[in-house]
Amino acid sequence: MQISSRFTVALHIFTCLEVFKENNKVTSDFLAGSINTNPVIIRKILAQLKNAGLITVARGTGGITVNRPLEEITFYEVYQAIEPIENGDLFHFHEAPNPECPVGRNIHSLLDSKLKAIQNSMEDEMRKYTLADLKIGMQDILAKEI
Amino acid sequence: MQISSRFTVALHIFTCLEVFKENNKVTSDFLAGSINTNPVIIRKILAQLKNAGLITVARGTGGITVNRPLEEITFYEVYQAIEPIENGDLFHFHEAPNPECPVGRNIHSLLDSKLKAIQNSMEDEMRKYTLADLKIGMQDILAKEI
DNA sequence: TTTTGTTGTAACCATTGACATTACATCCAT
DNA sequence: ATGGATGTAATGTCAATGGTTACAACAAAA
Fold it and tell me: A3: which chain B residues are within 8 Å (Cβ-Cβ)?
């Protein structure tokens, strides 16, 4: 199972914001054009980022503001804002293993800490990258493109 | 998006094998009972593990053999056997970003290495745990249970 | 104050994947 | 041969993803 494209779309949105906000009004239509999807899809993702407190969206006039310094906002925060994971567990268990079976009733004790360690190592790596990396990285790429 | 329960079910299967194989013939019915699911679900997962070369399943008579030493088989190998991920990428992109847009045509250059690093850190952690840990871990738990 | 452009959302729809279930052909040791 | 397994096709249900249309709410500018 792959992690849904909404996460990479969110990173795409932030990158567009930084690259274009000087010279363009970055609307959901504009973003949908760059990402090649539907404006409503963008608005739904913007709503999630807004609910997480990461951005402010101006109604009526349009326009998006990032609420905090770019170096402070990590990929992990974006991921958390976007992915609605049940009690935060990356790995899914089959519900209700048989409590009559010694293995069935202890499988969680056995696996939980190991799976948590795996999930943590992914999330820790996510915390190493910030929106500032997106801005600088894209500016670099564009400077070399010409 | 959570990783499907088939992965934890596979780990459950291996644990049952080690705990019960001495005294019971471990069939798909037996496993389905411990996990609390349908035998056909178990057989499909067994088929994946078989295709990956991790186990041998005896037709007719029934019974499952692990093909290699337990210390050699890591969670990562089980994960790879079970999760059919398109070209191995954990993170999904929206298809066909707009090549007319500077961000759209460069979003992969910008993100690919970072996302790969995140995925790698998860997979590296997965390589730290083996089927031997499952066997020993469960034996420990059961010894304390009495 | 009306117009214009934008966001917020509801209401759908199609597709896909996970998980479940039934049914039956196939296999193999006894 | 037969009894107990596996292999697998066919089908169903459910939830999530991604898309689309439509329209109300809103705010700035004409």
Answer: 1, 90-92
* A24-62 as b/e: b if 16+ CB within 10 A: eebbbebbbbbbebeeebbbebbebbbeeebbeeeeeee
Q: How many CB atoms lie within 10 A of CB A96?
A: 10
Q: Which two tokens stand for residue B122?
A: 């998860």
Give me the domain span that covers residue B21. Answer: 5-145
Cα separation, A121 vs A123, whole angstroms? 5
pLDDT classification of B13: cutoffs 50, 70, 90: very high
Report, in ranges, which bases of strand C sit under 7 Å from a protein C-beta.
5-11, 17-23, 26-29
The C-alpha of A115 sits at a distance from chain B's nearest C-alpha, in angstroms, of 8
Is B52 in a helix, a strand, or coil?
A: coil
For residue A48, what is the domain's CATH number? 1.10.10.10
Cβ <8 Å between B36 and A94:
yes
Place of tokens 């690093």: B117
Give the residue among B87, B88, B95, B96 at the shortest CA–CA distance from B122.
Answer: B88
pTM of the model: 0.93
Q: Where are the beta strands (DSSP E) in A64-132?
A: 64-66
Number of structural domains chain B divides into? 1
CB–CB contact B4 A92 (8 Å): yes
Structure tokens at B64: 């499952």
How much of chain A, in percent, has pLDDT values that exceed 90?
89
Count of Cβ atoms closer than 10 Å to residue B85 Cβ:
15
Residue nearest to nucleotide D7 (CA to C1'): B43
